[in-house]
Design brief:
The complex is a heterodimer of chains A (294) and B (530).
Chain A (H helix, E strand, L loop, with lengths): L1 E10 L2 E11 L4 E5 L6 H8 L7 E6 L8 H4 L3 E4 L11 H10 L6 H10 L13 H13 L5 E5 L7 H16 L3 E6 L2 H7 L2 E6 L2 E7 H7 L2 E6 L12 E7 L2 E6 L4 H10 L4 E5 L3 H9 L7
Helix pairs in contact in A: 3-5
Chain B lengths: L3 H38 L3 H11 L3 H4 L11 H28 L1 H5 L2 H6 L7 H27 L4 H28 L3 H22 L13 H7 L9 H23 L23 H40 L1 H11 L4 H25 L1 H8 L1 H6 L5 H35 L4 H30 L5 H16 L7 H4 L18 H23 L5
Helix pairs in contact in B: 1-4, 1-7, 4-7, 4-8, 4-9, 4-10, 7-8, 8-9, 8-10, 8-11, 10-11, 12-14, 12-17, 14-17, 14-18, 14-19, 17-18, 17-21, 18-19, 18-21
The chains are: A alpha/beta (294), B mainly alpha (530).
Chain lengths: 294, 530
């Protein structure tokens, strides 16, 4: 459905995308993670045919989006990160305009979404907050039954209730076999709905795969109180070791966890805690560029 | 209070320093060019007085400018020619600057950011006054020096520039008030502009007949005229707008201090949920977005055209009674048909207004791109080609409609006023339609830059400024034909004064078409946002 291969895109001296490769299969629900300025929006604009890659290939439904984007757009809906609308129109009029310019627009579905997102469509756009402008773009996109949905930081500005309403919509699309690419800098959001994840930083993919696999990469934290003798210095993949009196803490990679635990048991551990990496730790592992993966 | 207010003022001025400078210098140059033109055309006092006695007593000429207070000096003629026009332009500049720093800031939420610091609520409207005040002061100093440079009386020159800027100040105060009253910046500047237009038309009306000249007392344009630069030099008519400015400003500042930050006296109305579009096409969306602007310009220019039509009649009346004027017109226009000459030149001037409207409308495609709305539209089934076509249709049809309305309104008003038979209606409609070709060419230039190279969108307005300056000054400064011929308006045939010749119009249309084709290619090939 979505295939980007080794895409390079520069703006002046800035290398926004530096050999980016991204594949999303039909029916997949793919999280696209990265810090601000990593190149997420640029990637989506290339997929929409608004920007042209310097080198590399971009394919949407197997076609080059730069050539005849509007034909490909019959099968997709897009929600931009920064939603700017026409100040003189109401939210309802804007949704109608955008929806009717897409295929598969359903006024009935729109009305359901307006209720679901607790949205007042009669207010002029100029009076909307960021969250409400976001709702306009979301409702206009979700009211269309298309094959692919591209979301660029869609819950930015939404309150937690509305963000959850959005996630429900996404899960619903997924069960109906739609393909979704969800860009975000919030890992928890991607974790809540996506099965596949691509993490990018400075225009490059740092990690891509199943979210559950990625979690194995980050380090576990083991802490214990023990009574006997303990050495872990000979075990590979153990860092940040601290033994103060009879209290032990260390960061341990997934493969070495059983060995460390068995040593602690041998040393008569009275308490033992093995904590898997939190989302934040996983996030930081990839974002700060010190990823330990091959 | 500390030093927060001076810092805010400094910050506000920094944002606008180029605007302030550009307006003050450009309008100062207009004073320079006008004074130079009078100096060239009528170098002696006798020639100036001959001109005055012949031409300026006709309402058709003085309606927009007011009575000539002093015909003996170049300064007096310059003051007469420019006072109402410059007051109008400076008022519009001031309105724009004030609303930009008040309602626009509040609507964008930036006011909250500023007021979270050390500032008082009242400091925002006070700081917003500084850019227009600086613009006016700078313009006044430049123009004063220019007039003195032409050897004009320092006191008369001072009255001339002070009368202009103080009258314009009343509109700045009104804009400040409107920013309090209306919820959006468009409504605030729109309402103030409408009041300005009304007061200007009141001034025009007051000049048409001595019986109603008292109407001029009710409008700042009349005050500036009554200050009588180079003649009576009456400072009371300068003190009046200053007093009005102070009172209205104080009211606006006090009212800002008493209300919630960002609240407007008239709250935002709710609109309808749907039904504003006849189809899901970019043309339907463009019409929904643009129709308010189209109707506003259509209405305003039609009203103006009716006034021009009535004035055309009074031009004729005067011509019949003055042998001297007939000779002068023969010499000036090379035409015996003074009525037609008057109408043709005013339809030409109104075509410039239509051009300003057309460029505004064309550049909305540029605003959309900068704001990210184009990206949203192009993510739908709409192609770039259709997006551009929608813009072209909206601009093409609305400018044609406005030009037709102007031509018809002048013709009908003239016919009814002069009881002259219906042939002028067709004639003036024809003149207005011929001028549309030049309007379209200017719009096509704007379309090309907006579509192909948005970084240079300002070129559209620069080209417009050039064309206006050339039209105003080209003939007065006696510039060579090949320079004057660089504007499309120069090619529009001056029918019915001259023979009807469709060839130059066809050439203008062909060039416009070529520019439009260039716009399609330009938009097709580039990235968005560029």
């Amino acid at each position: 459905m979505i295939d980007l291969d080794n895409v390079v895109k520069t703006f002046g001296t800035t290398r926004a995308l530096d050999g980016l490769t991204l594949h999303v299969d039909e029916g997949g629900i793919h999280g696209f993670l990265g810090p601000n300025g990593a190149g997420k929006t640029t990637t989506l604009r290339i997929l929409l045919g608004l920007l042209k890659p310097d080198t590399g290939t971009a394919r949407l439904f197997g076609a080059d989006p730069w050539v005849k984007p509007e034909e490909l757009h019959r099968r997709l809906a897009y929600v931009p990160a920064e939603v700017s609308l026409w100040p003189g129109l109401t939210g309802g009029e804007t949704i109608e305009a955008l929806g009717r310019m897409r295929w598969g627009y359903s006024p009935k579905r729109r009305d359901e979404l307006i209720t679901q997102f607790d949205f007042n469509p009669r207010t002029k756009v100029s009076a909307y907050s960021k969250g409400n402008r976001q709702k306009v773009a979301l409702i206009a996109a979700l009211a269309c039954d298309v094959d692919v949905y591209l979301f660029d930081e869609p819950t930015d500005g939404l309150d937690p209730l509305m963000a959850e309403a959005f996630r429900e919509c996404v899960r619903d699309l997924h069960t109906r076999g739609r393909t979704i690419l969800l860009s975000s800098h919030v890992l928890a959001e991607v974790d809540a709905v996506c099965d596949q994840v691509t993490i990018i930083r400075k225009g490059k993919v740092v990690e891509s795969g199943m979210l559950s696999d990625l979690k194995k990469v980050a380090l576990h934290t083991i802490s214990a109180v023990f009574e006997g003798d303990l050495t872990v210095a000979d075990i590979a993949g153990v860092t940040n070791v601290s033994i103060v009196g009879k209290t032990f803490t260390a960061s341990v990679d997934t493969a070495s966890v059983p060995l460390v635990v068995s040593r602690l048991v041998t040393a008569n551990a009275t308490s033992l805690e093995v904590r898997p990496p939190s989302l934040e730790e996983l996030f930081l592992t990839f974002y700060d560029g010190k990823s330990t993966t091959p | 209070m500390s030093d927060a207010l001076p810092r805010l003022v400094n910050f506000t001025v920094r944002q606008d320093r180029f605007r302030i400078l550009a307006w003050a210098v450009a309008l100062g140059l207009l004073v320079l060019a006008t004074a130079a033109a009078w100096n060239n055309l009528y170098p002696t006092q006798e020639s100036r007085e001959a001109f005055a006695s012949a031409l300026v007593s006709t309402p058709a000429v003085t309606a927009f400018l007011g009575p000539l207070n002093d015909a003996t000096t170049v300064g007096g003629l310059t003051a007469w020619r420019l006072t109402s026009i410059l007051t109008l332009v400076l008022a519009l500049v001031g309105i724009f600057l004030v609303v930009r720093h008040t309602r626009t800031e509040a609507a964008a939420g930036r006011t909250d950011l500023l007021l979270s610091g050390q500032l008082t609520r009242q400091s925002l409207p006070i700081a917003a006054l500084v850019p227009p005040l600086l613009t006016y002061a700078l313009f006044a100093v430049i123009s004063w020096i220019v007039l003195i440079g032409f050897g004009q009386a320092p006191m008369g020159s001072l009255v001339c520039v002070t009368a202009i800027v103080t009258s314009a100040l009343t509109f700045v105060a009104l804009a400040l008030l409107a920013a309090n009253v209306f919820p959006t910046s468009r409504a605030a500047s729109g309402a103030t502009t409408l009041v300005t237009a009304f007061l200007f038309l009141l001034f025009v009306a007051s000049n048409t007949d001595s019986g109603v000249s008292w109407l001029g007392i009710l409008t700042p344009f009349g005050w500036a005229s009554r200050a009588g630069a180079f003649a009576s030099n009456n400072w009371w008519w300068i003190a009046l707008p200053v007093a009005v400015f102070l009172v209205v400003t104080a009211g606006a500042v006090v009212s800002t201090g008493r209300r919630d930050v960002g609240a407007a006296l008239i709250p935002q109305r709710e609109g309808r949920q749907s039904g504003g579009l006849w189809s899901g096409s970019p043309l339907a969306l463009a019409w929904r977005v643009d129709r308010a602007l189209v109707f506003l310009w259509l209405g305003a220019l039609t009203v103006l055209a009716v006034i021009v039509g009535i004035l055309t009649k009074s031009a004729t009346t005067l011509l019949d009674s003055s042998q001297q004027l007939q000779e002068l017109v023969e010499r000036l226009g090379g035409s015996s048909n003074f009525t037609n000459a008057y109408a043709v030149s005013l339809i030409g001037a109104m075509s410039l207004a239509t051009t300003a409207f057309a460029i505004t409308l064309v550049l909305r495609i540029h605003d959309d791109e900068v704001e990210g709305r184009t990206e949203l539209i192009l993510s739908t089934d709409v192609s770039r080609r259709r997006l551009l076509t929608a813009r072209i249709v909206i601009v093409g049809v609305s400018t044609l409609a406005i030009q037709a309305a102007v031509g018809l309104a002048i013709g009908v008003a003239y016919t009814l006023a002069a009881d002259a038979g219906w042939s002028p209606v067709g004639n003036y409609l024809g003149v207005a339609l011929l001028n549309t070709s030049a309007v379209w060419l200017m719009a096509a230039v704007a379309l090309l830059v907006a579509a192909a190279s948005p970084k240079f969108a300002w070129v559209a307005w620069a080209a417009f400024a050039y064309v206006v300056a050339m039209g105003e000054l080209g003939a007065l400064l006696n510039l060579p034909t090949w320079i004057q011929g660089t504007t499309p308006y120069w090619f529009v045939p001056r029918w019915p004064l001259e023979a009807f010749n469709l060839l130059p119009v066809l050439i203008l249309l062909l060039i416009s078409a070529a520019l439009v084709v260039g716009a399609y290619f330009g938009l097709r090939r580039r990235e968005i946002p560029a």
